[in-house]
Amino acid sequence: MNTLMRVIAYAVIIFIAAPLVIVVPMSLSTASSLQFPPPGYWLGYYASYFSDPGWLRPTWNSIVIASATTVLTMILVVPAAFALVRHKFWGKGVANLMLMMPMAVPHIVMAVGYYSVFGQMRLVHTHLGVILAHTCLSVPITFLVLSANLKGFDRTLERAARSLGASPLQTFGHVTLPILRPGLLISALFAFIQSFDETVVAIFISGRDAETLPRKMFDSIRQEADPVIAVISSLLFLIVAIALIAPHVVSALRGRFTTKGQEKALIAQ
Amino acid sequence: MNRMISRLSEQQNLWPWLLLLPLSAYLLVFFAVPLADVVQMSVTEPTLGLQNYEKVLTGSLYRKVFLNTFMTAGIVTLCCLFVGYPLAYLMAHTSRRNAMLILLLITMSFWTSFLVRTYAWMVLLGNNGPVIWLIQAMGFEEKPHLLFTRFSSTLAMVHILAPYMIMNIYSVMQKIDKSLILSAESMGARGASLFRHIYLPLTAPGIANGSVLVFVICLGFYVTPVLLGSPREQMAAGLIGHQIEEFLAFGLGSAMAIVLLGVTLVILGIYHRRFGLDKLWG
């Protein structure tokens, strides 16, 4: 049993790693169509990504849309999270469930709705339309992350500030907000990524004018024509990889420095 | 004094509603209205009546697509379980450092855009890709066609959804009290019987969570089946998109969307009554 599980587990590790490993060498390949192993290596397709407005414009659109979505989502979700975590009131359970609903509805269903309603409101093919839709879809995950942070908040700190004479506003600005900052940043990051990665609704409503990066990638993969897709894929993968590995490297380096420092301190003694 | 307290609590009761107001209003306009519009279109396009639902629920094409959707979601869920359980087990029973490394790999996969992963599978399974090369190197003459089949889309979906399953099972395995296993062993439970009677039931909540999550996401999956799957074996989301974009058949597309939504909500509703929905996403 144990060995069988182990063998399967190692195979699964290869299965999970293989697609991630293959993306970067593909982006350096000279082949103009899918071919592995690559016949030769160069940086030509990176150059074409960074000079092709057909790719840069969707990239920029995605950044703008995801940023605006993040701001709007936070403005709406932060007060709601405070209400639902810190207060007891009639209808709380229903309110909680309503907030989670956009997560339960398949995106294709929402895409049909936005396509029709935003079409009548002339919001199809506009940045604003995509931002409004994405904000809706970002609400549940942002709320989940933020409320988890808020639940762990030690409220005696606020009470201490109040008892020392701080006004409610001062308490919020000088105690609540600074303590909550990491939680706020992480939930904002979730909102950003949710929007930046969202594909289905964007395919239906972003059109040519507000074309997002995932939509462009989807079209490009469907037509199987543009080798630049490998470049943007490996860039997106590398951003994730660096963001995830960097903290480990930093803490490992820091750990080594502190132990060295401690050794020196010991020797000095 | 008593009156003051009750007035104070009244005031406090208004606060949460005030804080919730902006978000509620927003969700009403930009979530409930579009959703209601889908419902409306399903019974009014092109004419008033239930003929769209009749077509969707009895037409052979639609029945085939829905059946295919359920089957694919079921297969993907089972594969994720088969793939995820052993890996979660390894993570829970290896050194801390190794578990961290595997966790790093899984989170890396999880955070990488699923379009990127879909594309990567296209490379891996392509006609000039490494998998075909490996098959030929092993001495098989025939070049199998892997891309744009049920196989390729299923494989990619398993890869994309496996992290959900692994994380759910791993978080449960981590919390298992080791003394339970030890006491079962001291009473003579060994190997398969220890696993079946002690370990498996203890990890069942993680399996249930992961399976519901994977199944539900898979039901509504659009991008990967459209890009990697066989055009002859469409899934529901793909056909909905087709109806809207190609045929402008808003009524039929909407009716399909509502059926898909209904099934999803029934599954999540059952789950909610049993375990509580807030536990699903950890």
Fraction of residues in β-strands of chain A: under 5%
CATH architecture of the largest domain in chain A: Orthogonal Bundle
Largest sheet of chain B at a glance?
none
Overall geometric form of chain A: globular
Mean pLDDT of chain B: 89
Give the C-level CATH assignment of the largest domain in chain A.
Mainly Alpha
The portion of residues assigned to helices of chain A is: over 70%
CATH homologous superfamily of the largest domain in chain A, by name? MetI-like
* Count of the separate structural domains of chain A: 2
Oligomer: heterodimer
- Rounded to the nearest angstrom, the radius of gyration of chain B is 24 Å
Shape of chain B: globular
CATH class annotation of chain B: Mainly Alpha
CATH superfamily of chain B: MetI-like
N-C termini distance of chain A: 54 Å
Biggest sheet layout of chain A? none
| Derived structural class of chain B | mainly alpha
Q: Using DSSP, what is the number of strands of chain B?
A: 0
Helix content of chain B: over 70%
List keywords for this structure.
heterodimer, A: 269 residues, mainly alpha, MetI-like fold, 2 domains, 80% helix, B: 282 residues, 12 helices, 0% strand
Please give a quick description of this structure.
The complex is a heterodimer of chains A (269) and B (282). Chain A is mainly α and 269 residues long. Chain A folds into two domains: 42 residues, no CATH class; 178 residues, MetI-like (MetI-like fold).
Would you kindly provide a written description of the structure presented here, covering whatever features stand out?
The complex is a heterodimer of chains A (269) and B (282). With 269 residues, chain A is mainly α. Chain A has two domains: 1-42, no CATH class; 50-227, MetI-like fold, CATH 1.10.3720. Helices cover 80% and strands 0% of the residues of chain A. Chain A contains eleven helices and no strands. In chain A, helix 3 packs across helix 8, helix 4 packs across helix 6 and helix 6 crosses helix 8 (168-197). The longest helix of chain A is centred in the C-terminal third of the chain and has 41 residues, at 228-268. Chain A is globular and about 70 Å long. In chain A, 40% of the residues are buried. Chain B is mainly α and 282 residues long. Chain B has a single domain, classed as MetI-like (MetI-like fold). In chain B, 80% of the residues lie in helices and 0% in strands. Chain B has twelve helices and no strands. Chain B has helices at 2-44, 51-58, 60-92, 96-111, 114-125, 130-137, 150-175, 178-186, 191-219, 223-228, 236-245, 250-275. The radius of gyration of chain B is 24 Å and the shape is globular. The relative contact order of chain B is 0.12. At the A-B interface, helix 1, helix 3, helix 4, helix 5 and helix 6 of A face helix 1, helix 3, helix 4, helix 5 and helix 9 of B.
